[in-house]
Predict the structure.
Amino acid sequence: MKDLHLKILALILIVSALGLCYYKIDRLGVPLTPQSSAQVWTAEATVRFNGENQSAKIDLAVPKSPPGFSVLDENFISAGFGLATDDEGANRVVQWAARNLRGPQTLYYRVVLTEDNSANRDRTQPTPDYPDIPEYSDPERAAVFTLLDSVRARSADTSSFAQELLRRFNDPSPEAEVKVLRDDAASNLAQVEQLRHILAGARIPSRIAHVLPLTGSLRHGALVPWLEVYNGERWLAFNPRTGAAGFPNDALVWYAGDMPLVDIEGADDASVQFSALKTSRDVMGLAQQRARLINSDVLEYSLLSLPLATQNTYKILLTVPLGALVVVLLRNFIGLRTFGTFMPVLIALAFRETELIWGCILFSVLVALGLIIRFYLERLKLLLVPRLASMLTIVILLMAGVSVISHKLGMEHGLSIALFPMVILAMTIERMSIVWDENGPKDAMLSGLGSLAVAAVGFVVMTHPLAEYLAFVFPELLLLVLAFTLLAGRYTGYRLSELWRFRASARAITSKQ
Amino acid sequence: MSTVGRGWRSRLRLLRRNPPLRLPSTLRQLGILGMNERNGDYISIYNKRKFYPLVDDKLKTKQLALEAGIATPELYGVIEIEHQVRDLDEMLGDRQDFVIKPAQGSGGNGIMVIGGRRGNQFLRSSGVSVSRSELEHFISNVLSGMYSLGGLPDKAIIEYRVKPHAVFDAVSFQGVPDIRTIVFRGVPVASMVRLPTRQSDGKANLHQGAIGAGIDLATGKTVDGVWFNSVLDSHPDSGNAVRGIQVPDWQLLLELAARSYDLTQLGYLGVDVVLDAEHGPLVLEYNARPGLNIQLANQMGLRSRLEKVRALDSVPASAAARVALGQELFGE
């Protein structure tokens, strides 16, 4: 195969670039598009109780890999308490213990979460036993079985069974048997308990999940009961009021099952209060935190660890390869002519400040004025280096002049001309005047316009927000650019301009044949 | 109405016969060599970089050619630093005409041809008179690298001014026609003569309006000429026929070109030869990156010719045998 070595090298570059990129997206949650911030929730449970002058043990259920969230940080704020956490099936319990407690005490559990749609969606733990059919009282018994029979007739599996049951149970104008079973005055929790009681009649395992609805800034919040049924493989969640499947996006599952939220020994008057606060945090900061949690050094040694001012420099520098890529495409594939290989990239960098239209206008004005003066200098017969130095001085004076005049005229865009690379401009003017003298104005204008066109395209590509973001956050993608430019280095096909250039040759050869 | 329609239709027919763009597949089928392919598949593979200085520096070329017995225009002197300009008179002796050019110039830029002297006034071949101070300014520009590849400091070569052989007199306007031969692996593959016109201002540069006329490798006779992008059979200034001119010393010229390969070690080489009225074929310069215009001048594609030579397992060791091979393969 032709250029096998090069192709293998390019393949290695491409694979390593995409691999690293994938790792950062998938494992660290670095977003692929520029978003400045992400939602972060801080949820807090406050346990208050009264000490009774003896040793106390407080067990509090806390979230364990809650579905739809990934945990960024956890704090147990409890001065003077011994602390242990313990997994119990689907739940996790934190146990605080202390001796000789007196008076009111407060313990805090705080968790920082971010929404993560891929996180822990499946709930399989624990595998339940099938419940025995309860001993229903007489009127209840008939109602339960009538209801269950008619629900069973209109459902296919556990999921649709539960939904159909919930629909009927919550019907605003309920059937007779539901009326018997439903107590509209009962609390939410009691209603869900009643649903479990009915489901047990069909021997369907169920449990109550206690979720914390995260809305705005929540104070003095409480857990809301949610119904979960087991379908033989996993636990399925349903809104006990509407029958909607799954947990809502803004619901944090705190714990599930029959255990109490808080269990206190040796103290009394325990109460638990919940609060939640929504803040937005820098996405990259989040990714860094996540990287630290899974002990990944990828972001620790990334550009994000640099001081901010240096980061800003690299934000610009890392787009330069994209400009170089544009030069390669336009010169080797399209066939545009430019002054100097990378002069257009530097001009494009200057366009960042002036913006495109004004940049083009200012560039043309400067080069035109510079050319006129250069033609005059030609008559003075100066040596090369002093002539270039004079041109540099003149270019800077011209820039200052344009700035002052445009400022007086109220065109503030003229001020940003100061960022043009003056050395490059002076060299461009010099080379353009030489080409003008030797090959005629047409060649000089063509190359000049070619440079401007490449600079304009380069500017559009280099300043595209997505390109800027990707180059900075995924600098490994520049290996893709490298791979492409390496491959382009062995592109030996025709340039687009040659399809036009060789039309006469093609005609001559065809007519000769 | 009908005339408008006919004009429109005939224009369309013309456009179809001569479309502004050709398909890459058409160009490939016609064997036309593109810039990327020339650079990537020929120059970068067959021209080793370490040999470039031999051809990029015309002074080195001259010395090498001299050792190998290849004729070049006689060297009068070299100016390496500014104040050697004073030695100009000594270098010139009583010679009336000479050429000043940069040792590392490119594309025929920065060449001044002086056809006569009157004290401190020099007469350029174009008829313009230059003062001694203007001449010195020109030389200092050359030394500072204004015309050189990469703008590095350069040397100015003062050498013999070629007196063009009369054979092309009828079809050239001022200037000196030169004969460019592409030599690949030492085998001449194509040749053309570049004829200056009024438009090209006496320069033998196709881009600026010189005529390029292909030369049949077998016979040394010119074929149709090409001016800008169209085929023409007579010179635009004189009206004389461009076709069918027999290049004198053709065999010698091709052998010079073929031997240049041994000299330069460059596998893909452009050899520029001028025909001097007194000294015969003189090598003017070598080019490690010869242009693609020769395809148009010869009305043939270089690609198919190069591929034939590339496919050879080996090429003959002697220059004469390589010339014979080139003539056999590519003569018409």
About this structure: Chain A touches chain B through 31 residues (CB under 8 Å).
